[in-house]
Amino acid sequence: MLPIFVLIYLCSELSEGISTNPIIYDLTWTFGNDTIYWPGWKKFEFTKQIHIENNGLYSANEFCAAEHGGTHFDAPYHFYQKGWKVAEVPVTRLFAKGLSNEAAQWIVDANKFVGVGLDTPSIDPGNTTDYFVHKIFAENSLYNLENVKLLDNLPERGFNVVVAPMKIEGGSGAPVRVFATVEEL
Ligand SMILES: [Zn+2]
């Protein structure tokens, strides 16, 4: 099966990006026991710590996981020493527009995208040995979204995307919540 891409480019005006009543799609897989991780890396581990029901509820838990699993964000630093780490990616780049299919070099040459998302575990093909796509995107300050939950009813183009990675200091990647918003016609 071919991966499905979302090309993400910057909204020129943040204020015009979200209308008062958009349709909002959640493009994120829920983190839990079934979340996919690369073999050998720490899976999502959720530990119930406190649950006190006494005149109401106090509940608090812990979680632990590798950066690069489930729906997640690849910072350019993942494959490029001088690249932005997760907390360094400018927040203005995390509100963007999505398009449909094109190829890596074309995306870089087009010089108008800030990131690329796809519905497979890696932006490179599974049998890659040189990680060409990761590297060329990282060196051009593009981030990747991997394991995006792309929905059939998302229009082919013309939607806005909000990308909200956990802001991990020094992170090369992070769990991410991704939304698409479509203007109601
Ligand atoms: Zn990754």
TrEMBL record:
InterPro entries: KFase/CYL, KFase_sf. SUPFAM superfamilies: Putative cyclase (SSF102198). Residues 1-17 form the signal peptide. Keywords: Signal. It comes from the Eukaryota. GO terms for biological process: L-tryptophan catabolic process to kynurenine. One of its GO terms (molecular function) is arylformamidase activity. Belongs to the Cyclase 1 superfamily. This is Kynurenine formamidase. It comes from Ceutorhynchus assimilis.
